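re: ur question from yesterday

yeah so i grabbed the chain u mentioned. its 213 aa long if i counted rite. heres the sequnce exactly as i have it in my notes:
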Amino acid sequence: MTNVAYRINCGSTEPFLDADGNIWQADMLLPLPDGDVAPPADKGGFCCVGGKSVTREADLPLFPSGLAGLLRTECYDMTAYRLALPAGTYTVRLILAETFETLASLDRRFTLTLNGKPLADAIQPGAIAQGFCRAGECCLRGVIVAGEGLEIGFSPGANLYGMEVIAEPSAPSVKCIALAPSRKSDLARLGVKAMATGTMANFMSACIAGMLL
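ran it thru and got these structure tokens back, copy pasting raw so excuse formatting
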């Protein structure tokens, strides 16, 4: 049985029910007045430090559609997420996307720290998700918590759509994948069909023109 400590609908004031019946709880945004350090999460709780939220238009297509409710709201420019956790080993699953459709957004990159320890590589949501309005995930396995809880730090410009924290023993690793299947093969196949159809239409037009002349 999966021991889920948290499922968070980042940036949203409402919970999200996914297709598997899992509830992603509403976010807890905590501003930093006058640069003060926000208090740690209460026992059994969490907080997002310094984040802002934005909700995308209801008619914006988001993929996969089963996660559209999670991808509709984004948390951005947060300093950290602080989570109360007992000592143990965890998997942290970050749901990523890029729904602000500009070339600069597609090139967004940010870095993470886990209780102050930096991860080696920067995260690029648009590249991981393989385009705009598509979901990806970055799965951090083997995250060791010694009992002081977990603080996931973010560099400036970061954004996040969902977070899942699972208590499970595993070796340390980082894996980032797209959650919506690639449509490159579909586009290639449709491109060939479109060229063939266009060529046939041109031939038919030429034949009709020849009959009329």
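noticed a couple things. Helices lie at 68-71, 103-106, 125-129, 184-212. also DSSP finds four helices and 16 strands in the chain.
anyway ttyl
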